[in-house]
Amino acid sequence: MKKIFSILSVVSLFLLASCEKNVLSYQASDLDVTTKAQIRLVYDLPVVAATAQNITLLKYNDQTVSQISTALGNIFPNSTAKYHVLPIGANKVEAFKGAAKDQLVYSNTFNVPAGKWSAFVYNANEAPLMVQDPEEYETGHPWTDTVTYIRFVNLLYQADGVTPYGKVYLKGRRAATQPNINTYDYIDIAECDFKESSGYIPYTLKRNGIAIWSGTETGLAFVLFNENGEQLKVFTSAGALIDYAATGYSMTKGVNYIFHLNGKMGAAYSSQSVRLSTIAVN
Q1: What whole-number distance in Å separates Cα of residue 50 and Cα of residue 217?
Q2: Domain total for the chain?
Q3: Number of H helices, E strands in the chain
Q4: For residues 120 and 128, is the Cβ–Cβ distance under 8 A?
Q5: Which of 45, 121, 234, 282 has its CA 20 to 30 A from that of 273?
Q6: Are 48 and 270 in contact (CB under 8 A)?
Q7: Looking at residue 193, what DSSP letter applies?
Q8: Where are the beta strands (DSSP E) in 176-215?
Q9: For the segment 58-111, what is each residue's pLDDT rounded down to a tens digit?
Q10: Which domain holds residue 49?
Q11: In this structure, what CATH number is given to the domain that contains residue 43?
């Protein structure tokens, strides 16, 4: 028994030594917040959505940082809410499209303050709109509430793609409860003029019309109204004018979302590009 124990001890020591020799280490360093900032770039130019408009290469200060195809209404790179680290102060940004990644779509120099920022590229000739992100996000009580949080950013243009559309009201939409089963209930979330953003507004999730802890609510719908109280209307491919509604959303309790309204109105389906895009940020 003593001999077996000795053998096991030797084997154990060998395994420990082997583990020590094969430990994986990752190089990391703390961000110097006195000289560096974090930037999330959002692609919101008012052009009609098409694959040909996808950004295929992104540069900061003449250095390539992404070669992932990024569509209108999304963030760089792609749709994951990641940040790039940039020096505080003036920074150059360039975005290219095309299979060869050589067609310049956007170029500008913008000032980056300290902190964490979402930078919205909303005009081909203007610096991005800078919206500061919180260091910590609201998450709510883990058991007693069903709240998610929504920040609204308005970057919508008139049909010319130059004139701002004006103030827009973001509302949640749910089927009304009895007895008005053929109508909707509208839940006020935020109102923003052009190039404005709201704070993170709590929005209660429900299931079967009852506010209970459910984790994620599916089938959510959101609508937009103008200053006259009229619901925003868009053209269908058949040429009909209908109320705009963003449907089929799934939102999770404790998660913070940015809803950024971007694009332009149109005189026809082929010339409009109204997008209510979302980013889950935590």
Answers
A1: 30
A2: 2
A3: 1, 19
A4: yes
A5: 282
A6: yes
A7: -
A8: 184-192, 196-197, 201-204
A9: 999 999 999 989 999 999 877 666 899 999 999 999 999 999 999 999 999 999
A10: 36-133
A11: 2.60.40
